[in-house]
Design goal:
Blueprint (H helix, E strand, L loop, with lengths): L7 H22 L1 E2 L1 H4 L2 H10 L7 E3 L6 H6 L37 H14 L7 E5 L6 H13 L3 E7 L10 H8 L4 H17 L5 H14 L3 H5 L3 E7 L3 H14 L2 E7 L18 E2 L18 H15 L3 E5 L3 H4 L1 H7 L4 E3 L4 H13 L3 E7 H4 L3 H9 L6 E5 L16 H6 L5 E3 L4 H13 L4 E4 L21 E4 L5 E5 L3 H11 L5 E4 L2 E3 L3 H8 L4 E5 L8 H11 L6 E4 L12 H7 L4 H7 L1
Parallel strand pairs: 2-3, 3-4, 4-6, 5-6, 8-9, 8-10, 10-11, 11-13, 12-13, 15-16, 15-18, 18-19
Antiparallel strand pairs: 1-7, 12-17, 14-16
Length: about 600
């Protein structure tokens, strides 16, 4: 859609049309909501001043990219947002050349812009990278690594700081407070007092207008001190919903031909009154009633996240040395409940996974029992710290990995597919998984007693209810749930146990089912014993095949010189898994029980 020739009146109408389209579709289909509504005018300004098909448009996280999608020939297809086979909820270059980069994790945008700017210079082109980044993403250290270099090399990059004073949860950290509260600081207040005093003593009456203008000028200068010191020019703050001001400011920034930050104040949920402001539950939503904002509620069993949070509260109530962190996802991980109950022992450290891991390593050394509660996909961001600061020291930190396996509509950037593969090869790490709610509770008790690093994984949504009684975890011990008469063996790990049980129930043969429980240390003794009874083994686990559960079992069989076993793993193939309804995604991967029966 070409916006460059439109009048201010037409642009304002377009912004309303975009909001109406987002509200209509998201209210029926679900998706990211308040963040994308708050970025409408900023996005229109980007398209008015720059060229989305030439200038790299880089959206940090990119959950605020819905207006961009609507402006780049996806208005009709927007009906399919986050649906299986439809548009991604994030930027995705194979959807449109206007989407410069895949995004889904935070704080990568300025680094991408630096790389793009270097490339543009080497190619002797005149394109300009344009970044939109939220104030929440400014809590991650990677942003400052990129700004540090950008301020040194001075290549043209325009960074729009979308400051709505809220990321997913309330922003944590010095930078967020700096952006929103610097004008209340003592230095500024002292300066303001001196100016007021000077005007009163030395200027004629009626100069309050001058004083007011001077104060407004200072407001334009002081928040940019940090960026100016890093060598990046600063403009703002501006009203991010004033189209004329946005366009004029972006044109100025573009013409400066150097790195510039445009600080724009916006309101999350702008244009839909119920969602306006700092309401965490409006960040990403399911279907809701547009008239009153009431969510369409579905009956659902208790989610694993809620089971985990309640179990950890019980554990923390019994043991005062239990502490924990999350990285900007307090409600998503259930840690908000513990922050409320134990505010001195549980923290949200903002989008700073590396810091979360290392800070908890020090607490473990001091005798505390840290639980780092984090999505599987986001733990990847603290990988070096897991090795260097936790496992090398053999510290008893617990990594509680939520959203393990397929996560549904968020798609390839968020699928919890890799944690087994990237944690299993680290010395001192213990990996185990519960199969249902009760074993999740037992798993936390077991993790508390461990003297080594450990990682426990559990799925998004609810575990299946199983009829098998729950028993306490014993280090490195698997559990036979059912002994069958055939020569087949089903091995389940974590939520994969229920898939094994459901598949066995549809099979004509009577099949033995093993809950592996531990992938490290793995139960070699039981596996070798089972190899004398069963020839055909099938592995069920919500994880990547390479380096996964099946690989761990094959290593044992090889080491023990077991020759008779034929093993087939139903773990994920060597692909990035697309977005969509979880059942539809599993069907596309051939993982529904009825499909597995046919494959077996």
């Amino acid at each position: 859609m070409d916006v460059k020739g439109k009048s201010q009146k037409e642009l304002k109408q377009l912004s309303q049309d975009i909001r109406d389209r987002i509200i209509d579709v998201v209210s029926r289909k679900g998706g990211h909501f308040s963040s994308t509504l708050g970025a409408v005018e900023l996005t229109i300004g980007m398209h008015y001043v720059f060229d989305a098909y030439s200038d790299p448009f880089i959206f940090d996280v990119s959950h605020q990219c819905y207006p961009h999608k609507l402006l780049t020939d996806r208005w009709d297809d927007f009906e399919t947002i986050r649906q299986f086979g439809g548009l991604s909820g994030f930027t995705k270059p194979n959807e449109s050349v206007a989407d410069y980069f895949v995004a889904g994790h935070s704080s990568t945008s300025i680094s991408l812009a630096v790389g793009a700017a270097k490339s543009i210079k080497l190619k002797n082109e005149s394109r300009v990278p344009v970044v939109m980044i939220g104030d929440g993403s400014m809590t991650a250290g990677m942003v400052y690594e990129a700004l540090n270099e950008l301020g040194d090399i001075k290549l043209p990059v325009v960074i729009i700081l979308n400051d709505n004073e809220m990321s997913i949860a309330k922003p944590i950290g010095a930078i967020s407070k700096y952006l929103s509260k610097i004008l209340a600081g003592k230095s500024y207040q002292r300066f303001k007092g001196k100016v007021d005093s000077f005007i009163k003593k030395n200027m004629p009456e009626g100069t309050t207008y001058i004083a007011k203008r001077m104060e407004e000028a200072m407001k334009l200068i002081t928040p940019g001190i940090l960026f100016e010191e890093m060598g990046v020019d600063y403009i703002g703050p501006i009203d991010g919903h004033d189209l004329e001001e946005v366009i004029d400011t972006l044109q100025i920034a573009k013409d400066m031909n150097k790195p510039v930050i445009v600080h724009a104040r916006t309101v999350k949920g702008k244009g839909y009154k119920v969602a306006e402001g700092q309401h965490e539950h409006w960040h990403g939503v399911g279907p809701f009633n547009v008239e009153d904002g009431a969510f369409v509620k579905k009956e659902a069993p208790k989610a694993a996240t809620a089971v985990f949070a309640d179990a950890l509260i019980n554990l923390a109530s019994k043991h005062e040395n239990v502490v924990g962190v999350t990285a900007a996802m307090p409600s998503g991980t259930g840690i908000n409940k513990l922050m409320d109950k134990f505010p001195d022992r549980f923290w949200d450290v903002a989008i700073a996974e590396q810091h979360a891991v290392t800070s908890m390593a020090a607490m473990a050394k001091e005798g505390f029992k840290p639980f780092i509660t984090i999505y599987s996909t986001f733990l990847q961001r603290g990988f070096d710290q897991i090795i260097h600061d936790v496992c090398l020291m053999d510290l008893p930190v617990v990594f509680a990995m939520d959203r393990a396996g397929i996560v549904g509509n968020d798609g390839e950037t968020h699928q919890g597919a890799f944690d087994i593969s990237y944690l299993r090869f680290i010395p001192n790490m213990i990996l185990f998984a519960p199969r249902d709610n009760k074993t999740l509770e037992l798993g936390l008790d077991f993790a508390y007693k461990l003297k080594s690093p450990s990682a426990i994984r559990y799925p998004r949504g609810a575990f299946s209810e199983l009829e098998y009684p729950s028993t306490a975890f014993e280090l490195g011990k698997a559990e036979i749930l059912k002994e069958g008469s055939s020569k087949k063996l089903f091995i389940g790990y974590g939520a994969g146990v229920s898939r094994a049980i459901n598949t066995e129930a549809l099979h004509s043969e009577d099949i033995t089912i093993l809950d592996l429980r531990f992938v490290k240390p793995i139960d070699k003794k039981t596996l070798v014993e089972l190899s004398s009874k069963y020839d055909d083994w099938y592995v069920f686990s919500d994880s990547q095949k390479q380096g996964g559960v099946g690989s761990a079992i094959l290593e044992v069989l090889n080491e023990e010189n077991v020759k008779n076993v034929n093993l087939k793993s139903f773990e994920y193939e060597d692909i990035f898994i697309d977005h969509g309804d979880t059942k539809k995604v599993e069907e596309s991967l051939g993982l529904l029980p009825e499909q597995l029966v046919k494959a077996i």
